[in-house]
Amino acid sequence: MRIALAGLATSHPYTDARTLARHAELVVWEQDPDRLRRFTDEHPGAEVASSLAGLLATAPDGVVLTVPNPQAPQALEAVLETGAPVFMNKPAAASRAQLEALDRLEITDRVLSSSVLRFAPAFTAAKIDPEAVLSVRATVRHDVGIWATGYNPWQDTPGEGGGTMVTMGVHGVELLVALLGPQVRLAGAAGAIRHYDGLRSEDTGVMALRWDSGVTGTVEIIGVSESEAYTVTVHTREGSSEIVIEGGDDVLKGLGYEGTVEAFLAMVGGAPSPVPWAQTRAILDVLVTAREAVPA
């Protein structure tokens, strides 16, 4: 089996590759020579392609797509033409123009794009009856201080990678949509810089959501944090319960990276995406609308 890594624009494909290398031969393409060198140092046996077209010409059995968001629609279109299943690292779109470009593509059940947290054991083991839910809250704790140093500036730029509201907010919105479904809209959003003055976006944010069922929800984004953790609080008539997602002793398993790769490899074996594109599209619309509501 051959898996292609189309781009290494964020940390995620490096993490994905550590699991994928146990199952498949790897072929990689990346525009930045330093990022590519970091990858080949860890995976010296990986085949290197000089372009996206060259990568796809190797006839991979599956593709992990991770390019800067402005390039993502065009890159996904090229991958779709091969017919290979694709895992598109989050977020698939970070602006209205990018989302509209994705809408023009024929996206089938051979495309998976999701926060890895959806596949975290603590989340998949949770038993929640949506009919009993009154309201929900997702709290995302993930430090964004590295962006204040100038690292990956496109991610921190609202019109390109969406900034903290989109890139970190996707984790919270993903979990809540996974629980309650895609019939959701943004009711309001706010963001601020509380600590990292060098940012182009924000280091704290909040979104208010409302489902067609009447359930309300909030997503809190804490981008100033000494630890990484994600909590979903579910409020019912009987009381409140929490789902806590942490890396623990095995980060790849605890945060859902392994589960995501397993889902992707099942797609390589012929299974449809476990996350319907309708859910991904709803998540992206909430995030883009929140970004528009909180300009930089």
TrEMBL record:
Residues 133-240 form the GFO/IDH/MocA-like oxidoreductase domain. The keyword Oxidoreductase applies. Residues 18-106 form the Gfo/Idh/MocA-like oxidoreductase N-terminal domain. Pfam families: GFO_IDH_MocA, GFO_IDH_MocA_C3. Transmembrane segments: none annotated. It comes from the Bacteria. Keywords: Oxidoreductase. InterPro entries: Gfo/Idh/MocA-like_OxRdtase_N, Gfo/Idh/MocA_oxidrdct_glycsds, GFO_IDH_MocA-like_dom, NAD(P)-bd_dom_sf. This is Gfo/Idh/MocA family protein. It comes from Nonomuraea mangrovi.
